[in-house]
Specification:
Strand 3, helix 2 (about 55-60) and strand 4 form a beta-alpha-beta unit. This protein has a single domain, classed as Dihydrofolate Reductase, subunit A (3-Layer(aba) Sandwich), CATH 3.40.430. Mean pLDDT is about 95; it is low at about 1-5. The chain is built from 4 helices and 10 strands, in the order ββαβαββαβαββββ. With about 180 residues, it is of the alpha/beta class. The strands form 2 sheets. The protein has an 8-stranded mixed β-sheet with strand order 5-4-3-6-1-7-10-9, sandwiched between helices. It has a two-stranded antiparallel sheet with strand order 2-8. One of its GO terms (cellular component) is cytosol. It is an enzyme of class 1 (oxidoreductase). Belongs to the dihydrofolate reductase family. GO terms for molecular function: dihydrofolate reductase activity; kinase activity; NADP+ binding.
Length: about 180
């Protein structure tokens, strides 16, 4: 799907949340390549009471719906079902459902939480990026898509507090620059 094929326009801002290495890696074999408890707390805090959009593989890596959030799983598999989730068969339908729910519940934004292909498809619609920038290069099989910092403005950067043996990381928020 390319942005020109999609006419989705949200009433509620679309945001993406991700932890990624310097080389853009976000996962290996369906798991995070690091364990950063502070990042998991950040993720929970930023996504509470907001609709979540995720791919089937991301859902499978979690193994259950996340509480206090509408969990929307995107998959081409028309037979896929998972208790406690809503299933959509393309990103556009998932974003429309999330937008409707966010409007009803007065959520401040829709949260796209991966994986790599869902991020790639959703990036053109995102107005905000919550990125935990992990200061390492790792091998992996899932990556966050390339994006130009010329299109984004950094609005917040907070240094993480890594425990001994953990890599350094920052919590960074970017907002898309408008092209008016």
């Amino acid at each position: 799907m390319t942005p020109s094929e999609n006419t989705f326009e949200s009433l509620v801002p679309v945001a993406m949340i991700v932890a990624m290495a310097k080389n853009r890696i976000i996962g290996v074999d369906g798991k995070l390549p690091w364990y950063l408890p502070e990042d998991l707390k950040f993720f929970k805090r930023m996504t509470q009471a907001k609709p979540l959009v995720m791919g089937r593989k991301t859902y499978a890596s979690i193994g259950k719906p996340l509480p206090n959030r509408l969990n929307i799983v995107v998959t081409r598999d028309t037979s896929f079902q998972a208790a406690g989730t809503r299933v959509c068969h393309d990103l556009s339908a998932a974003l429309e459902l999330a937008d409707q729910q966010a409007t009803i519940e007065a959520a401040e934004e829709i949260m796209v939480m991966g994986g790599g292909e869902i991020y790639r498809q959703a990036l053109p619609f995102a107005q905000r990026l919550y990125i935990t920038e992990v200061d390492i290069d790792v091998d992996g099989d899932a990556a966050f898509p390339e994006f130009s910092l010329d299109d984004w403005r950094e609005v917040q950067r907070v240094a993480g507090k890594p425990a001994e043996g953990q890599p350094r990381y920052d919590f960074v928020v970017y907002e898309r620059l408008t092209t008016d």
